[in-house]
Design goal:
alpha/beta, Nucleotidyltransferase, domain 5, 43% helix
């Protein structure tokens, strides 16, 4: 298996639209032994640069929403403690890797599993592999809404939906097949080319 202990953190971040982007919201949901453990981390984060209006229209967060939030430096130790040497999961996970690594330069995940790659492998022929479409096709949007706060394009909702999609995709396959598809979906696997 890509992760010997079977533990993953499903991660989603929302940014301020800057170049490079800064994190304004982060959510992490734990999966262990193919189960949601109930352990999660969610916070708003105050960036150093304003949130761009174009991204506010996507995720709904404004400068006023994050004005009293901690900075990334204030939460860095907590985030690093939770993610320390863990495998992460994300939908198009390269985005999370890039923005988190830029914000927390000392962080390196054990693996980075991309549910977009998993879905393309395990559910071929779908019209769309966007997270919201996958959630609808697999029937997880209602449960994600119950777990997440503000709905689509908020970090907690998207992390919840990604976690449910991930579990749905890998739960019904054999251990040998699971190991293979997780290895293939790990964008940090040397065969995929090192990202960090």
């Amino acid at each position: 298996m890509v992760v010997a202990n079977g533990r993953f953190w499903v991660v989603d971040v929302e940014g301020n639209g800057g170049s490079p982007p800064e994190i304004v919201e982060m959510a992490m949901i734990e999966i262990a032994d193919l189960q949601l453990t109930g352990k999660q981390f969610h916070c708003l984060i105050r960036p150093t640069e304003p949130i761009q209006p174009a991204v506010t229209r996507i995720h709904g967060l404004t400068d006023a929403d994050v004005a009293g939030a901690p900075s990334i430096d204030d939460v860095a130790d907590d985030v690093l403690m939770w993610l320390d040497n863990s495998a992460i999961v994300g939908h198009n996970v390269r985005i999370e890797l890039d923005i988190i690594a830029r914000s927390l330069p000392d962080w390196r995940p054990a693996a980075a599993i991309d549910t977009l790659l998993l879905a393309r492998t395990l559910k071929p022929g779908l019209d769309s592999y966007g997270l919201q479409k996958l959630g609808l096709v697999l029937g997880h949007t209602t449960q994600a809404a119950q777990m997440g706060s503000r709905g689509p394009h908020s970090a907690l909702y998207d992390a919840a939906l990604t976690a449910l999609v991930f579990l749905d995709l890998i739960a019904g396959i054999t251990q040998t097949r699971r190991d293979g598809v997780l290895r293939d979906a790990n964008i940090l696997d040397p065969r995929q080319g090192a990202l960090l």
